[in-house]
Amino acid sequence: xxxxxxxxxxxxxxxxGVPVLALRRGKVPFGNCRTCTGNACGGxxxxxxxxxxDCPGVCHAWAAATTETAVIxxxxxxxxxxxxxxxxxxxxxxxxxxxxxDNADAIAWxxxxxxxxxxxxxxxxxxxxxxxxxxxxxxxxxxxxxxxLMSYARYLGPGTGTMTALPDAVRxxxxxxxxxxxxxxxxxxxxxxxxxxxxxxxxxxxxxxxIAMAEQRIAEASSGVHATVYRAFLAVLSTHGRCGCLTDTHxxxxxxxAQAKGETLRHCTDAWTNALxxxxx
Length: 281
Prior knowledge:
The protein has helices spanning about 5-15, 70, 75-85, 105-115, 170-175, 180-185, 205-220, 225-240, 250-260, 265-280, and strands at about 20-25, 30, 85-90, 95-100, 120, 125-130, 135-140, 145, 155, 165. The chain is of the alpha+beta class and about 280 residues long.
């Protein structure tokens, strides 16, 4: 039976209100163009193509996802579709949350602890899809990831069963218990600059987007976590390290994202220090 191309699948999903993007080999988004490397362009604030970045391409992973057919079929996206192996979508942009169950043990746990909903088979497990959104979080328990806001999931078909509302049991999975030993912030600093604590680049939301995208980049790292953490720290510092707008709260968020991926406090401190040194701060 002839299988639909990724582009045809993407257009069908987009017309139903699901923001889509092309995924390359490895089931990952295409990398940023040179202009957008390190999110130097400011990134995109959501799944729309308007915002700080006006790059017409598929940059910025989940934030490139769109329902606009004119964008999906544009020349700027054509090369990506020719190389695409599958279609990704932004669950949060569609008002959904995907509980990604990666193995049989995770599925068995879900059947005992979560209300039934629409399920989609994956290569190794299942996606359980609920109506409603929440923050995305990987590794909330063994073999379980949550993909919703600021994340993408692979489209594997419509699934079976009736989709139900996002339960508190899923939301509770992403609530991290405080761990003073892991989250204590060492004496790290950046140049005070002359910004007086205000980000002078654009609106105040520009800083928030930069921190959020750095957190997301770290959270989605499937390999090379050390290098990913360093590059994320470097990207934030290269934009905000001299204007005085970074606070201990911002730094703590970045460290917490890295520690959630298994980085030690020492690794975080070393990566931050190395980034400061690289930029001469």
